[in-house]
Amino acid sequence: MIVVKNLDKGILFWENLGFEIVTSVPQDDEIGFVILSNGKAEIMYQTTASIEDDINETLPESKTFLFVEVEDIKKIQKALQNEQLLIQERETFYGATETICLDPYGNWVCFAQFKAEEK
After folding, report:
1. Is this prediction's pTM over 0.85?
2. pLDDT per residue over 31-70, tens digit each?
3. Strand ranges for the chain from DSSP E
4. In what order do the strands lie in the sheet with 30-38?
5. Can you tell me whether residue 119 is helix, strand or coil?
6. Which residues, 6+ apart, have CB-to-CB distance to 95 below 8 Å?
7. φ and ψ at 105, to 5 degrees?
């Protein structure tokens, strides 16, 4: 789960990559929690305010490095053409083709497609 102040930018980011909202929980006039899904992959976001209400404490700001396995890296790269890319494409020693970008909140997201024989 990725914790952010507002979910709107994150929802749009993941919908652009083919994810769909499967669950959302309102909080006041906004969405406080959301699950987005694409095949076997699920991404969860929750607002800072929603968690702070749950635990009655103030959260420190933090960043996430998310690793997402995908079936078609070229499709993801095309969808990311207007996003901030850190690594356009690289081949790894463990058999993955990866693209790394920043999400709208500055979290690092690594998309990886594994060769069929490497799985």
Report:
1. no
2. 999 999 998 889 999 999 999 988 888 888 778 899 999 9
3. 2-4, 20-27, 30-38, 41-47, 65-69, 85-91, 96-102, 108-114
4. 2-4, 41-47, 30-38, 20-27
5. coil
6. 114, 115, 117, 118
7. -100, 0
